[in-house]
Design goal:
It is a single chain. By secondary structure, the protein is mostly helical. The protein folds into two domains: about 5-55, no CATH class; about 100-195, no CATH class. About 40% of the residues lie in helices and about 10% in strands. The protein has helices at about 5-15, 30-55, 65-70, 85-95, 105-115, 180-185; strands spanning about 120-125, 145-155, 190-195. Strands 1-2-3 form a three-stranded mixed sheet, with helices on one face. Helix 1 (about 5-15) crosses helix 2. The longest helix is centred in the N-terminal third of the chain and has 26 residues, at about 30-55. It starts with 5 loop residues before the first helix and ends with a strand.
Length: about 200
């Protein structure tokens, strides 16, 4: 969307004036000042209309984050009592566009979004006739068919650091440390999930 400036609107208003001596600058100098004020107001409204259009898109929302949160039952309890504004924006985006799921790929993607790029899911297996062998590691029990482990691997270095932070931000903390809450909320009800944090 092209945003018009006050000069653009001033030129347009001048062009829309009817012909005649009453609208001439020489005979009516105050008219040009009146058009300049009207052009400023129209340019400001044009800018706010562009802002409203940007606020309707979850990837660019800033001012209306509280309204989006009210509609979407946010803030997410997994983010804690006082989440950062960026985390609140991300939660709005995720709630609107995330499809969810209960596949291995979905849970790996959840871990990656929380800062664990090498995460993998280990599915335990229950003993089955013809497939099980004595002495095999991770033989499991009958309940093992409902168990799985998320091996997070090493955590990516996140957080605010000297030279890469703004005034007022928590220094040295890792954002989005809510992996367990997000994982347990999304896991199937009949499953038993474990998290193995990497070094």
């Amino acid at each position: 969307m092209a945003i018009r400036t006050a000069d653009d609107y001033h030129a347009q208003l001048r062009a829309l004036l009817p012909p005649g001596p009453a609208w001439d600058r020489e005979f009516n100098p105050g008219l040009d000042e009146l058009l300049a004020v009207a052009a400023e107001l129209l340019a400001r409204e044009d800018l706010r209309a562009a802002d409203l259009l940007a606020e309707s898109d979850p990837s660019t929302v800033r001012e209306l984050v509280p309204d989006w949160e009210r509609v979407m039952s946010l803030p997410d309890p997994c983010l804690g009592d006082s989440p950062k504004f960026e985390d609140r924006q991300l939660a709005v985006r995720r709630r609107l566009v995330e499809a969810g799921g209960q596949s291995v790929a979905y849970f790996v993607e959840l871990a990656v979004s929380q800062g664990y790029p090498q995460a993998q899911v280990i599915e335990h297996r229950a003993p089955r006739f013809g497939r099980s062998r004595f002495g095999t590691a991770n033989f499991g029990t009958w309940a093992a068919q409902f168990m799985w482990t998320l091996d997070t691997g090493p955590r990516r270095r996140l957080g605010r650091r000297f030279g890469a932070t703004y005034f007022g931000e928590q220094f040295g903390g890792n954002p989005s440390g809510a992996l367990e809450c997000v994982l347990r909320r999304s896991a199937p009800a009949h499953a038993v999930e474990f998290i193995k944090y990497g070094e």
